[in-house]
Amino acid sequence: MSREPAKRMQNCLNRLGIDLTVCWRPEPNKSVHGEIKHGVLLLYDEDEQDAWKTFMHEVLEFRFQQVTQPYRMIVNSLIEVIEKLTYSRKEEFLDFMPIFMKSIEEAKPEEK
After folding, report:
1. pTM summary value
2. What is the CATH number for 98?
3. DSSP per-residue string spanning 75-110
4. pLDDT of the chain along its 112 residues, tens only?
């Protein structure tokens, strides 16, 4: 396997200003063709043409994640607010339960 394709891929990323490092290391038994981990674009395809397809896919996905990041931030913020609200309401309910039970006991007529 020539190191040349990985160099060409890296040059492409550098020209585009994409801060990733290309590492082409064929692993045919991997369940994925490629992935990005810790700023490294890992390509697992054995065939060079397949590696280029995976390269394109991973770079597009990387850039698309930047597009959708604001939506993920909003959704995560909403989840956090809802979790806090739900926790607060649950605590209020649990505080209410003993008061409710005591009120019922006091209001019931005595058994004969």
Report:
1. 0.68
2. 3.30.2010
3. HHHHHHHHHHHHHHHHHHHHHHHHHHHHHHHHHSPP
4. 567 999 999 999 999 999 999 999 999 899 999 999 999 999 999 999 999 999 999 999 999 999 999 999 999 999 999 999 999 999 999 999 999 999 999 898 887 7
Q: Domain tally for the chain? A: 1
Exposure string over 37-71, b if 16+ CB within 10 A, otherwise e? eeeebbbbbeebeebbebbeebbeeeeeeeeeeee
For 102, the domain range is 4-107
Q: For residue 47, is it within any domain?
A: yes
